[in-house]
Design a protein that fits this description.
By secondary structure, the protein is of the alpha+beta class. The chain folds into 3 domains: 80 residues, Uridine Diphospho-n-acetylenolpyruvylglucosamine Reductase, domain 2, CATH 3.30.43; 111 residues, 2-Layer Sandwich (Uridine Diphospho-n-acetylenolpyruvylglucosamine Reductase, domain 3), CATH 3.30.465.10; 79 residues, Alpha-Beta Complex (Uridine Diphospho-n-acetylenolpyruvylglucosamine Reductase, domain 1). 25% of the residues lie in helices and 26% in strands. It is built from 8 helices and 19 strands. The longest helix is centred in the last third of the chain and has 19 residues.
Length: 310
């Protein structure tokens, strides 16, 4: 009689001890604006930067690690995410002001940074009130809105590499381009320093109000959406191409192209991640057929389809 094959080790048994929390098969849909998608094989919420660095240094190299923010620009596929998903919490959300510089943790909300800057009389960061994510994600993708981008205001970013090593990178080293940085995929931004300029408090407050009003009137801010779906092609606007292809209001199941802003996909209630992604791919096909332009996804898509190998 052949000996029984050894049972594969559970993922949690292969991971180093942490001071934060580890949760197996943690649902990720509640952590995204779309409210769709599968679970993390393991969700790690580090206690602080040292906890995260020590985890990265000690974890087996074959176990994938991916970091998520507040899920404002994220689609988690229905089969979930293999390996470890890292979500940074309060210990990464500090906002400190020194002169005209703001040091913000990666989990600090972009609008909170804009409001902190306004309270200190620092101008130039108002655009962040219109970016519904975190500073870590903003650095990773060179987030921008209303005529400004992170690259215009960043002094330096602090990051951990895949082995937990600490790095400080200035704007040149971050290699920014439109909606991109040159950060290696396995590096995790933990903080950034931004610099504005002295401004009039009333003028800054007025600009914040203008951006808020513009965003609320032109975007489906109260819907289950991942924000801008596709990158604007050079010299073009994605929403105009989508409209030209007749996709405004297009549906697949409970997923829909927004009637308010055609570059937003929304979950009208109960949509699977596959519905949302397939709708996006249908939009890309129609735009390519109509205009010859291949739209590029801006929304970050992670994980595997339902029934996919983990």
């Amino acid at each position: 009689m052949n000996a029984m094959s050894p049972r594969p080790a559970r993922l949690i048994d292969r991971l180093p001890a942490v001071r934060g929390s580890l949760e197996a098969q943690a649902p990720l849909a509640p952590l995204t604006r779309f409210r769709a998608g599968g679970a993390a094989e393991m969700l790690f919420r580090p206690a602080d930067r040292d906890d995260l660095a020590q985890f990265l240094a000690a974890r087996p190299a074959d176990i994938p690690v991916i970091v998520v923010g507040v899920g404002s620009n994220l689609l988690v596929r229905d089969g979930g995410v293999p390996g470890v998903v890292v979500r940074l919490g309060r210990s990464f959300a500090d906002i400190d002001i020194e002169g005209l510089e703001i040091r913000a943790g990666a989990a600090a909300l972009d609008p909170a940074v804009a409001e902190s800057a306004a309270g200190a009389g620092i101008a130039g960061l108002e655009f962040l009130i219109g970016v519904p994510g975190t500073i870590g994600g903003a650095v990773r993708m060179n987030a921008g809105a209303y005529g400004a981008e992170i690259k215009d205001r960043i002094v330096a970013a602090e990051a951990l590499d895949g082995q937990g090593g600490a790095h400080t990178l200035d704007a040149a080293a971050l290699g920014f381009s439109y909606r991109r940085s040159a950060l290696p995929e396995d590096w995790i931004v933990v903080a950034a320093r931004l610099r504005g300029h002295a401004g009039d408090a009333c003028a800054i407050a007025r600009r914040l109000g203008e951006i808020k009003a513009s965003r609320e009137s032109s975007q489906p801010t109260s819907a289950r959406t991942g924000g801008s779906t596709f990158v604007n092609p050079p010299g073009l606007r994605a929403w105009e191409l989508i409209e030209k292809a007749g996709c405004r209001g297009l549906r697949r199941g409970a997923a829909q192209v927004s009637e308010l802003h055609a570059n937003f996909l929304i979950n009208t209630g109960g949509a699977a991640a596959a519905d949302i992604e397939e709708l996006g791919e249908e939009v890309r096909r129609r735009v390519l057929d109509k205009t010859g332009v291949a739209l590029e996804w801006e929304i970050r898509r992670i994980g595997v389809p339902a029934g996919g190998a983990r």
